[in-house]
Write a structure and sequence with these properties.
Length: 268
């Protein structure tokens, strides 16, 4: 029994403390599993979604394997503040604009995709891949990795900056899978898109909205390459570049202003 006025130290919920090192190792393990299986498929990156069979072997199977790895880690580690934040963190008008443009670009693609031309088997696999990407990449980056970066009293600005950079670097293997020099541009675009996805988590204090936004975005991108008219593709490209520019401005402002750590509810 505790003595009067004796401080009660909360028992941490995790089996081992969150840290940058563990978060990074988990992310590296996910990348290794996903891209190892994707490369073993022998399918060029540009052909991943040419048909249902390609999508299964180059994307869906690697995502299932990577997701199982992440689920195993979540069960083992029992880190807190991975799925939810203790409170809803504040967002501003620029953040709201970014999320609105992001959703609007998705809807524009989905409305004008030539659905009648999409093979049913490919559509089903693409939807499954979108679900897998939404879960796996969000949990790996804005779940586990972000939780690791939030350890030791690190400011939210720096935690999010490193998470944003890591999301860009996650796409480096695509350069060797077939994107070539264009993959370098993809790294920057992916990183800034990752910041927008963080805003979905921040706005709702829950990672699931970010997973949904990420998954539907990728579904629309996968299908737009072949089943969207050049004119609409050009419009969505302009919207995407606008999102990237605003995201860069918002990220700089965020890092400068968010100098306090997020309260994770337990001592790291």
């Amino acid at each position: 029994m505790n003595k009067p006025n004796e401080a009660i130290v909360p028992t941490p919920p995790w089996r081992f403390s969150p840290s940058v090192a563990i978060g990074t190792l988990c992310l590296i393990a996910y990348i290794t599993v996903f891209y190892g299986i994707a490369q073993a498929s022998g399918i060029d990156y540009g052909e991943w979604f040419a048909n249902a069979n390609n999508a299964i072997y180059s994307a869906l199977i690697p995502l299932v394997a990577g997701s199982l790895l992440l689920i195993a880690f979540l069960v083992l580690a029992r880190w807190n503040v991975v799925w939810r934040d203790p409170v809803r963190l504040p967002t501003n008008r620029l953040h709201a604009t970014l999320m609105t443009l992001f959703v609007g670009t998705i809807l524009l693609r989905l409305v004008f995709i030539q659905w009648g031309d999409v093979p049913v088997d490919l559509l089903l696999v693409v939807i499954a891949v979108g679900i897998g990407v939404g879960f796996a990449e969000e949990m790996a980056l804005r779940g586990v990795f972000l939780r690791g970066m939030r350890a030791s009293g690190r400011s939210e600005g720096m935690a999010v900056l490193w998470t944003t950079i890591a999301f860009g670097l996650l796409h480096i293997p695509n350069i060797f899978l077939g994107t070539g020099a264009l993959g370098i541009i993809q790294l920057l675009l992916a990183a800034l898109t990752g910041f927008v996805l963080y805003l979905f988590r921040r706005r709702f204090a829950w990672i699931v909205p970010a997973m949904i936004a990420h998954g539907i975005w990728d579904i629309s991108v996968f299908l737009s390459n072949k089943y969207l008219s050049p004119a609409i593709n050009l419009i969505t490209l302009a919207l995407t570049l606008t999102i990237q520019l605003l995201a860069l401005i918002a990220l700089v402002q965020f890092v400068r202003s968010e100098r306090e750590p997020v309260n994770t509810g337990a001592t790291d």
